[in-house]
Amino acid sequence: MSGYQLALQQLTDSALPTGAFAHSLGFETYVDASVIADEASFGVWLSAFVSQQLTYSDGLAIRFLYEGVDIGELDALLSASLLPRQVREASVKMGLRLLEIGGEVFPSAELGLYRDVVTTGRAAGHQPLAFAVVARSLGVPLHEALAAYLFATATSLTQNAVRAIPLGQNAGQRLLRQAAADVAAAVERIPHLTPDDFGALSPGLEISQMRHERQRARMFMS
Description:
By secondary structure, this protein is mainly alpha-helical. It has one domain (about 5-10, about 20-210): Urease accessory protein UreF. The chain has ten helices and no strands. It has helices at about 5-10, 25-30, 40-65, 70-80, 85-105, 110-120, 125-135, 140-165, 170-190, 205-210.
């Protein structure tokens, strides 16, 4: 077993207290509108989310960091491209928690530098960048880091959907098995994207995320 594998499992475990349980990243808007009401309809949304927002935003940011793009520049790009305020704030909230946990459990000089930049207000501290810094410092290859991050996000969202729609636990596992194919496709696609692709995602996803802020009743923060 490679030395980083157990650490990677800990880093992507749903028990890691980043606050992901508090965010739907927009699917709750569709639940409120009865567009998402069951296993099949949530599966359609999750597939779109993985193949679009996770691929062209978080996943591409992780790849660029691995390739040596300045982390401050990537942080600013994420802040600018995440147009829905709640989603932008969710990325930062979960990123700050990951930076805090990483500093205690997976310390590295690279992580320390990013924390300093965030602490001094020169960067926001987005979740995919915090994850990428930790993963790269652990020696995790890019394709494994991408697969782990994307699937962990899909897992968190599915667990939240199980509670919110609600769905049965078996349905949640079926959805994750389906999501694995979308994650694998995204991992194959991300290395071939260009900087011009960054932030290219469906307006429908962004609009639903913006509408969530004014939803009358909700379980999630985003």
